[in-house]
Amino acid sequence: xxxxxxxxxxxxxxxxxxxxxxxxxxxxxxxxxxxxxxxxxxxxxxxxxxxxxxxxxxxxxxxxxxxxxxxxxxxxxxxxxxxxxxxxxxxxxxxxxxxxxxxxxxxxxxxxxxxxxxxxxxxxxxxxxxxxxxxxxxxxxx
Length: 142
Description:
mainly alpha, two-stranded antiparallel ribbon, 1 helix
């Protein structure tokens, strides 16, 4: 036992010599073995491959969907930005027009106040004339 070497994971293959083993079995690809086991292993590897392909494809599809959603969102926000800019411009124009009309609006308010005062004076004058007429009729009867 003087030549015993610590070779963990290394096995001796009868046909090829020492190999690095990833499992505890000594399966050789070219060795005759159970065909049913080979068919099942092939089926398992194919189904595992299909599963992994499906998982990666679905993840890729998710990323594509997110990318498309981001593009749509960017477009929508860009449109909203243009709309907001147009609304802001319209509001500024309206404010400028309102400010230019402000003196006229004040004159309209003053005219309205004068009309209200004139209307009140007309009502007072009407009431006075009715009293005066009643007084004249009462004096005329005597």
